[in-house]
Design brief:
Number of strands: 7
Largest sheet: 5 strands, antiparallel
Structural class: alpha+beta
Strand content: 25-35%
Order of helices and strands: HEEEEEEEHH
Number of helices: 3
Oligomer: single chain
Length: 131
């Protein structure tokens, strides 16, 4: 083995190198947000590590085989893999919530997510500043 450090490549670099004709919306971009799963809640943090919002899981009801679609990465599956979450709208004093369905496995969701647009839209709807 060599003592030289091995060079690593981002997903974006690999796609552009081997598949140059890939449509722009399918090319992975570097993310400005991190998803963290903390005791069942999903926390969205900015690139500086500041927590922006916390999404609480909603107790599932109905048919367990119902198919959901992740609002961040567009992965679909049953409730074993996806969960409905809610976040309070800023300034609503606990009276207004916004609901999203997301992957329970935040690491897998991060690898599949190709855009920050769904997160930015959620932050905008919740009235959260994310500078």
């Amino acid at each position: 083995m060599s003592d030289e450090p091995q060079q690593t490549y981002s997903a974006r670099e690999i796609v552009l190198e081997f598949f140059p004709a890939t449509r722009e919306q399918l090319i992975p971009v570097s993310s400005a947000y991190d998803l963290k799963n903390h005791d069942g809640q999903i926390i969205i943090a900015n690139s500086k590590g500041q927590d922006l919002i916390s999404l609480s899981p909603v107790q599932p009801s109905g048919n367990a085989s119902t198919t959901l679609c992740c609002d961040f990465c567009q992965h679909s599956g049953n409730r074993y893999y996806l969960q409905l979450y809610r976040a309070e709208v800023a300034g609503s004093k606990g009276r207004h919530f916004f609901y999203v369905s997301l992957c329970k496995n935040t690491e897998a969701c991060e690898t599949r997510r190709i855009s920050d647009k769904p997160i930015e839209e959620l932050l905008k709807r919740l009235g959260v500043t994310h500078s």
